[in-house]
Amino acid sequence: MKQFLVFVKKEFYHVFRDRKTLLMLFGLPIVQIMLFGFALTNEVKNSKIVVVDYAKDVSSQKIIHKIESSNNFEVEKALLGYNEIEAAFKEGKIKLALVFPSNFNKDLMHLNKSQVQIIADASDPNTGNTLTNYVTSIIMDYQKELMTNANVPYAISPEIRMMYNPELKGAPNFVPGVMALVLMLICVMMTSVSIVKEKEKGTMEILLVSPFKPFLVIISKAVPYLMISWVNVCIILLLAVFALGMPIKGSIFLLFAESTLLIITALSLGLLISTQTESQQTAMLVSLMGMMLPTMLFAGFMFPIENMPVPLQVVSNAVPAKWYYIIVKSIMVKGLGFSAIWKETLILMGMTMFFLLISFKKFKIRLA
Amino acid sequence: MSAVSLKNIRKTYNDGKLVAVEDVSLSVEKGELFGIIGPDGAGKTSLFRILTTLLLPNGGSATVDGYDVIEDYKSIRNCVGYMPGKFSLYQDLTVEENLNFFATLFNTSIEENYDLIKEIYVQIAPFKDRRAGKLSGGMKQKLALCCALIHKPTVLFLDEPTTGVDSVSRKEFWEMLRRLKEQNITILVSTPYMDEAVLCDRIALIQSGKILSIDTPKKITEQYPGKLYSIRSANTHQLLGDLHSYDNTKSCFAFGESLHYTFKSEGPEETRALQNHLTVLRHEEVVINEIVPTIEDCFIHLMSNES
After folding, report:
1. Does A16 reach chain B within 8 Å, measured CB to CB?
2. I need a surface site. Which of A149, A347, B160, B235 has the fewest CB within 10 A?
3. Which domains, and CATH codes, for chain B?
């Protein structure tokens, strides 16, 4: 036990005496969260739109008021002809135009239906789509209000509900993703590099020719990174809650338990890489290419997996981050309990066992 | 029972294409300072790694302290001390942290065996808070030796401990080894420096994985056949060329500022004949002396016999 502790202490010395490692360990999660939270967001904020109101009646004013009070738009009111609208789009001044026909309210009241034109700049399809959705949902909202007030029967309104994320915020999506990415990167890369470093520097030779059991070498390598990863989970969650205003709906304890599971999965994967590589550079490259890309692509937080071709969907099942992403989303965003995620948990456990089994089998108690 | 014994040990790499150690048999007695002398690539490190259970031999058997290197590798790892050729301590840990780490790793403490390392440790103690990576070559070796000794091993394996160390530190290092021998620790040391061979109790000369000779350094030099001469002149380079083309030359090697020379057939007549020959070739300040062969001369002789 004393041997084990002194070994763990030694690992901590390695980490805390290497500024680059330290920067990477604690800088990475902060940078990632800030980057995804503020720069790389797919939320659309403060888009300039123009409202062309030929009606100028109660209904159109109310809708405009609603749009103005939303965070997403900067409304400019002008009476433009059709050609002028197009010119404004071409200049790139505006992203969307909303046109109320002259007898908007009258039609709505008498015919129970009325039309409004939404013209969006779809050169960026995502933005166009998002903005259209925002505006549509605001109009629908108004229509609903109107119906309850006037008690008009047989009027049917399509119901759009943005489940779990009614404000269409980006944070619920990427915070679990960043957690998966950071944990995978740090744990896989750090363990594999630190074990291979012992091989490369020749210290593994001395460690092997000692009474210390080889598998304890591995365990004591993993412990410091497990602890550091816990700190990272805390940092990410604190940032998510206090900087991005994203609440944790489910149990924090469960979230930590599941994160620990992913950390162990990643550590065992790092171990597996270390048994197969001989130099720090190779280990680093394999971890980066083998972890970062698949995690980004297949975890599901950047590109929805449902949109991928079937073969890629199958491939995504092999990425641990995908399952962790589902778990974290369920706990953090949907507030679900263990009963909802036992299947994903089991899959992660299975993966961990698999990685550990192979690494222990491949771990060399000799040099060659 | 001998401390270390090897029987027909064989080690190959690349599926047998590269033979590193071929049929090596030797035994080292308890408390002996045994040197394995040979140039780079002779198979010294492979041999050490087999004995320290880091590599499996392809053939033969070996025991260290009575334990088999394959079957009882765990027992061997408990009782031997090993200092690899490359400096293999943690460069980002201080001198004291390194020593403490290895002491604990071997289930002991610095205090427990301090008397064993005391003489060596006092020399590096002033730098105990310095990181190992910032030490000089000689200091590093002393620290590595301390770390290998801290658990009072029965057999100590030192793989090229003096390579890359200045001559003063080398001398000091060998003095330390002699003192360790008095503590009844069996020491196996490998070195490419032939001049260090005389400091061992017994040596094995090794070349291309084969043992050329095993004996005390004295006996090995005594077994040198014939007489060895040292020849000097003002122009060593020219001299070497001329001697190589001389009929009665058996061997001729540059050895520092002089040449070590053997005749095919020797006698006072031949020596005089050579002296005359060189004078005719206008060599100045020619001095021919009979000398006592060194280990290196013996090594070169044995090596040329082999091939």
Report:
1. no
2. A149
3. 4-222 (3.40.50.300), 228-306 (3.30.70)
Query: From the CA of B140, how many Å to the nearest CA of chain A?
Result: 14
- Are B94 and B132 in contact by the 8 Å Cβ rule? The answer is yes
Question: What's the CATH code of the domain at A114?
Answer: 3.40.1710.10
pLDDT-derived band at A140 (thresholds 50, 70, 90) equals confident
Which residues 17-36 of A have a C-beta within 8 angstroms of B? 17-18
Which of A91-95, A318-322, B124-128 has the least mean pLDDT?
A91-95
Residue B138 confidence (pLDDT)? 86
What domain range is A279 assigned to?
2-40+178-362
- Number of folded domains that form chain A: 2
Q: Which residue of B has its CA nearest to A217?
A: B105
Q: Are residues A193 and A142 in the same domain?
A: no
Strand bridging mode B4-13 / B18-28: antiparallel
**pLDDT, mean over chain B:** 90
Q: Which of B10, B8, B7, B6 is CA-nearest to residue B58?
A: B10
Same domain, A35 and A56: no
| Alpha carbon distance B80, B88 (integer Å) | 16
Which of A6, A205, A367 faces B104 most closely, judged by CB atoms? Answer: A6
Note whether residue A211 is domain-resident: yes
Q: Could you give the 3-state DSSP secondary structure of residue B251?
A: strand
β-pairing, B155-159 with B80-83? Answer: parallel
Q: Which residues contact B26 (CB under 8 A, 6 or more apart)?
A: B4, B5, B6, B204, B211, B214
Calpha distance B155→B169 (Å, rounded)? 23
- The interface residues of chain A toward chain B in range 189-208, judged by CB-CB distance below 8 A, are 201-203, 205-208
Confidence of residue A153 (pLDDT cuts 50, 70, 90): very low
Residue scoring higher pLDDT (B48 or A73):
B48
Confidence at residue A354, expressed as pLDDT on a 0 to 100 scale:
95
Structure tokens at B171: 């001398």
Q: Residue B246: what are its φ and ψ, rounded to 5°?
A: -80, 140
Give the chain B residue whose CA is nearest to the CA of A202. B88
Determine how many CB atoms are found less than 10 A away from the CB of residue A210.
Answer: 21
Tell whether A6 lies on the interface with B, counting CB pairs under 8 A: yes
